Task: inverse folding
C-alpha cells in the first residue's frame, strides 16, 4: 500500500530531474553574450545588463537572503569591495527573493552593492541556475558568472563554496585583465 502511494511521487521527481538536467546542458558558453536583464534592486531602482558595459561584472546568483551560506558569501564580497572597485569590477547579487527582502538583507549586513530581485525567475532561468531540486522548490543555485567589459561570459563558477569565493573571483579577474 505504501509503495503504491510512493510511485507517483518518484515518477514526478524523475520527470523534474530529467527536465532540469536538460536545462543544465543549456549552460552558457564562455565567450557567449550574457543574457540581458531588467530587474529591481533593494531600493526599487531598475538595473539592466547594459549599464555595466565597460566594467567587469560579478553576477552572483544565490538561493535565499539571510541564510548562512548566502550571508557568508555576501559578507565576503562586502569585505573585499574596495579590491573589486580598484580593478574596475562591480558586484551584483541576484536571488528570487523580492526587493523588500533584499533591502532588509543589505541593511542588516551593510552590503555596499546591488542585490537584484528576480521573483519571476526569468533571469535566473536565462542564466541556467534554476536546476535540480532547487528549481523544484523555486530558488536559484549558488553560481557566479563573470562578465567581461564587452558583455560576454568570461567565466562561470558552478557549485560555489561561499567561503573564499570572493577572493577566487578577484584573482580570476586580475588574471583575465593581465591577458588583455
Result:
Amino acid at each position: 500500500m505504501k509503495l503504491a502511494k510512493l510511485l507517483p511521487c518518484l515518477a514526478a521527481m524523475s520527470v523534474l530531474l530529467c527536465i532540469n538536467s536538460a536545462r543544465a546542458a543549456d549552460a552558457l558558453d564562455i565567450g557567449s553574450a550574457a543574457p540581458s536583464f531588467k530587474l529591481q534592486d533593494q531600493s526599487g531602482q531598475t538595473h539592466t545588463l547594459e549599464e555595466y558595459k565597460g566594467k567587469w561584472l560579478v553576477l552572483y546568483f544565490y538561493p535565499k537572503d539571510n541564510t548562512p551560506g548566502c550571508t557568508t558569501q555576501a559578507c565576503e564580497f562586502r569585505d573585499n569591495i574596495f579590491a573589486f572597485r580598484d580593478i574596475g569590477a562591480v558586484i551584483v547579487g541576484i536571488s528570487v527573493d523580492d526587493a523588500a527582502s533584499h533591502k532588509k538583507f543589505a541593511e542588516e549586513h551593510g552590503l555596499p552593492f546591488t542585490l537584484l530581485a528576480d521573483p519571476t525567475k526569468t533571469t535566473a532561468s536565462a542564466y541556467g541556475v534554476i536546476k535540480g531540486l532547487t528549481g523544484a522548490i523555486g530558488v536559484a543555485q549558488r553560481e557566479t558568472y563573470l562578465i567581461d567589459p564587452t558583455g560576454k561570459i568570461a567565466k562561470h563558477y558552478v557549485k560555489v563554496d561561499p567561503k573564499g569565493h570572493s577572493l577566487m573571483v578577484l584573482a580570476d579577474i586580475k588574471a583575465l585583465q593581465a591577458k588583455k
User: Anything to note?
Assistant: Helices lie at 2-25, 68-79, 81-86, 99-109, 122-126, 132-137, 165-179. The longest strand covers residues 89-95.
